[in-house]
Write a structure and sequence with these properties.
- The structure is a single chain.
- By secondary structure, this protein is of the alpha/beta class.
- The chain has 17 helices and 13 strands.
- Helix 9 packs across helix 10.
- The longest helix is centred in the C-terminal third of the chain and has 24 residues.
- Bound molecules: S-adenosylmethionine (SAM).
- S-adenosylmethionine binds next to strand 2.
């Protein structure tokens, strides 16, 4: 139902509707400025998307929240535009990555440290293998060790351990975080990278059957689990060279966009308009936000897809084991991600009529999948309720969701989420649509690995839903 609004609020809604009708594809635009491309991340926003809404619907100094921030695109844009960003996620890699993106570091110190890390790590790789083996024995429990042995060659394990030891010597938290992200970025890549996996950036790791190392020597592979379907091969890159290359690329981009603290302290940035406010980034479940009521001026977020269509932890654990996490702990954490398949321990919310009918119709095809969908919509209801609570009256939450099919049925995510939002008090004046750029978006490389990838078939467009919180209850 349309709320009755005074002129100021009507102007706000009209502006929101216009923005949702405009081009939201941003296909030909550069999305790699500032620190946006420091690390790959599946289903991340083009930065122009949050930028558009932040610029048009907030003023400098106002508060921008992304409760499922992923790689931190919204929070970085808020920071660049002089707004106060708040970002939450339950994924440790996302939190580390978002922090690194918005923490200005001294370019000068980073260059010095990167040289030292690489030269010391090379030195121990060549002359202190025993010490590194001891470190490897100390680092992991049996299960995590098995995982690492399966996915990383012996030489790469030694090289990464040497880099980790050197990074851990850094006292400055921002610099250490930056280098940890660089380390992770050489592991989680599309097809290159230093592990024995292909397609990690799409969260669909496939272990190669043949590999040669950076010196051109074939690696001895455990072929007991070799797939008969296809033979995948890979040239493993040198962790030292990759690390150096990524460091230099990222520092250059950050410097050009004012994320260089040497420049910041001298205030010599071009177009220095607003004081930049350091964003608050922390680990938090979006179902229970660590925020007071009505303290946020805009929310811009994109939740995960239903039914683990993108399984973040499946790829992120490849880096997180190098940062001290155990596989068991990560598997437990994965169960708390929105859109998971597990049902045990997940209660359901009461859902409105049309949404319930979509779930019931899926139940006729696949009863278990329909419970997975019920879990998803229940969790989204809890999250929308929290968003409603923390958002100021007369302001909007922009939620970007991909179209989704389960067992061939369109689960009408745009209609259902709008219905759920309206049952909580939101008003949804318009839903924008954006077409995905299949050349640029982080999609599975279907022709190379899995032609029938579910996610490939599911995602052609995204809905941009404007949930407006009316000024009166
Ligand atoms: C589609 S991604 C967000 C991508 C982001 N817009 C970007 O530009 O990088 C969804 C994120 O939701 C996070 N997530 C999943 N369940 C969550 C929960 N219960 N609370 C907070 N974040 C969660 C995932 O870890 C993932 O990083």
């Amino acid at each position: 139902m349309t709320p009755s609004l005074d002129l100021e609020n009507q102007v706000y809604i009209d502006r929101l509707c216009r923005l949702l009708e405009e081009d939201l594809d941003f296909h030909d635009q550069d999305s790699g400025y500032a620190s946006h491309n420091i690390h790959s991340f599946p289903a991340k926003f083009p930065p122009q998307l949050p930028r558009k809404f932040i610029q048009a619907l907030t003023l400098p100094g106002e508060t921008v929240l992304d409760p499922m921030m992923g790689s931190g695109t919204t929070v970085l844009e808020a920071f660049l535009l002089g707004r106060r960003g708040i970002g939450f996620d339950i994924d440790p890699l996302a939190v580390m990555l978002a922090k690194a993106k918005v923490s200005p570091i001294s370019h000068h110190d980073a260059v010095i440290w990167s040289r030292e890390i690489i030269s010391n790590a090379r030195e121990s790789f060549f002359s202190q293998k025993r010490v590194l083996y001891n470190e490897i024995d100390r680092m992991w429990d049996e299960e995590t060790r098995e995982f690492v042995d399966y996915w990383f060659s012996r030489e790469v394990q030694l090289a990464l351990t040497a880099l980790v030891v050197e990074i851990n010597r850094i006292n400055d938290e921002n610099l250490r975080n930056f280098f940890n992200v660089i380390l992770s970025s050489i592991i989680i890549t599309k097809s290159g990278g230093v592990s024995l996996a292909l397609d990690l950036a799409h969260t669909r790791p496939h272990r190669v059957d043949r590999a040669i190392d950076w010196n051109g020597c074939p690696l001895e592979m455990d072929t007991s689990k070799r797939s008969e379907r296809r033979k995948l091969s890979k040239k493993i890159r040198s962790p030292f060279e990759e690390f150096e290359k990524k460091c230099m690329q990222s520092l250059k981009n950050m410097s050009e966009n004012g994320l260089n603290s040497d420049q910041l302290s001298m205030r010599c940035l071009p177009n220095w308009e607003n004081a930049r406010m350091q964003p608050d980034i922390s680990m938090c479940n979006a179902k229970s936000l660590l925020l007071n009521d009505e303290c946020v001026d805009i929310i811009i977020t994109s939740p995960p897809y239903a039914s683990h269509a993108i399984d973040y932890m499946r790829a992120h654990k490849f880096s997180l084991v190098w940062l001290g996490y155990a596989i068991r702990e990560l598997s437990e954490r994965r169960k708390r991600y929105i859109g998971g398949d597990a049902l045990e321990g997940h209660g359901f919310e009461s859902l409105p009529g049309y949404t319930s009918s979509i779930i019931d119709s899926l139940a006729r095809r696949d009863p278990r999948k329909s419970l997975v969908l019920r879990r998803y919509y229940s969790e989204m209801k809890a999250i929308l309720r929290e968003m409603f609570r923390v958002l100021k009256k007369g302001r909007v939450a922009i939620v970007v969701v991909g179209e989704s099919k389960l067992r061939g049925q369109d689960v009408e995510i745009d209609v259902c989420l709008s219905e759920i939002g309206e049952s909580l008090g939101f008003f949804v004046p318009r839903i924008g649509v954006r077409r995905l750029d299949r050349n640029r978006r982080m999609m599975p490389v279907g022709n190379q690995v899995d032609m029938k990838s579910q996610i490939q078939r599911r995602m052609h467009k995204e809905f941009v839903i404007g949930f407006y919180k009316p000024p009166i209850d």
